[in-house]
Amino acid sequence: MNIIKYPAKEDWKEIVKRPHLDLSQLNTTVEAVLGDVKNHGDAAVKRYEEKFDHAHLDHLAVTEEEIKEAEQLVSLELRHSIELAHHNIAAFHEAQKFTGSKIETVKGVTCWQKSVPIEKVGLYIPGGTAPLFSTVLMLATPAKIAGCKDIVLCSPPNSEGKLNPAILVAAKIAGVNKIFKCGGVQAIGAMAYGTESIPKVYKIFGPGNQYVMAAKQQVSLHEVAIDMPAGPSEVCVIADENSNPTFVAADLLSQAEHGIDSQVILITTSEDMLNKVKDEVNVQLAQLPRCEIAAKTLENSQLVLVHDSQEAIDLSNTYAPEHLILATDNYEELANKVINAGSVFMGKYACESAGDYASGTNHTLPTHQYALAYSGVNLDTYNRKVTFQHLTEDGIRSIGKAVVCMAEGEQLEAHANAMRVRIQSLKK
């Protein structure tokens, strides 16, 4: 990891940079695959499944028999863990339900909002080296609570044409009603355009590799909404002289093992702690099954020594991390100063893994500094707010003249006339 001591504020821009990939060729490839899926539907999807996932598929939809088979393959301990996580995620998101109030803005004018669920949502769940069944819970649970009618899930199959059993079990527990064996760019295209088997959705959710994220961004230009622009995973840990270096190193490595384009940053006020964490990272790294991936990530990562906790939180807010761990004695004081972060973990026992799996908060979060402007997935992400207004005769008297005046000021005569005829009707 790169060690940076007492950086000047003008150097922070370099510290907060994420690993950069040249996406020009990637975007061309993604565009071609999306066009093929749009024009040839299921046939194109199956062709790409054979090419990229080495799976020959007669049917894309997962059958009830496959779900029952998956339930037999998942251990009782894992099933109970999934059920516990689902319970906590549901409890947290249930508490986010919107209750709109009717407001009389002026006499005779009443305005209010109603929360309306998105009818058709698509969930993308990565498979590959790390099948993210936890993401099924994070995406499907709030969708079900929101009241989405169609919850469509796509995930890449293995070479035998089967989905990971835990993904299927989590999908059933969380209430997914349509599951398809389909991964990568072709899955995003199928949900965006619709095929003979896979229905078109109105919004697509979920993480993925650079190809998947590029596909989501391309289809969002014309076809569907997406949850957020996102990229590789990241964590920032703020530590002081009393932090636990074993815990801190474990937290850094928990994100480093995601992929070689991930990034981890330690910001600390203690040089002794920096050195202890550096040594502990090396010890733990050697024991990880995914040590080669994590080691590559560490090349993009920093250990930063700063003067005090205020400088630490200021640098963190500039970085705008996906995950922020406050492993300091004064974590509550620092938490009050957090402005830019996807999800915050307070105190030495709040490891980021807790939020990834079972504490109840959502782990689908903005990365790549998008936390400056975006929230993580929550119940509102699955809803639209429809506004309503009701005007009485008193309402016309209250705002009628102002509406006419403003419309005339913008030279929109038809707008002015729509209100003018109502004002005139009150005089009769």
* Element string (H = helix, E = strand): EHHHHEEEHEHEHEHEEHEHHEHEHEHEHH
Overall structural class, as computed from helix and strand content, comes to alpha/beta
For the record, give the distance between the C-alpha atoms at the N and C termini, rounded to a whole number: 80 Å
Radius of gyration: 25 Å
Mean pLDDT: 95
Query: How are strands sequenced across the largest beta sheet?
Result: 1-11-10-9-12-13
Q: Low-confidence stretches at least 5 residues in length (pLDDT < 50)?
A: none
**How many DSSP helices?**
16
Helical percentage? 40-55%
Shape type: globular
Number of beta-strand segments: 14
Strand content: 15-25%
Largest sheet composition: 6 strands, parallel
Put the structure in a nutshell.
The protein has 428 residues and is of the alpha/beta class. It is built from 16 helices and 14 strands. The strands form three sheets. The protein has a six-stranded parallel β-sheet with strand order 1-11-10-9-12-13, sandwiched between helices.
